[in-house]
Amino acid sequence: MTREERKLLSKEPIQWTGDLTDDCTAKWGGLMLRAESMNDDHWWWAVYDMQRDEITIDSSNDYKERFLGGRSIR
User: Is a pLDDT exceeding 90 seen at residue 36?
Assistant: First the structure.
């Protein structure tokens, strides 16, 4: 996927699949977005680059703060 193709795809809306109250995934602009409910409304999330062997770009594991609420994570 070229840089220009990624730019075009990034203008499309993100469409989540799976159970939005528990574990969901979206593919968007060459990325894969994941969100999963852990406990007490605490959510884990990650962003993967699908063009670079699914390397993790960012993740809630890299932050000290807790991320609350599935809607805000997505």
Answer: yes
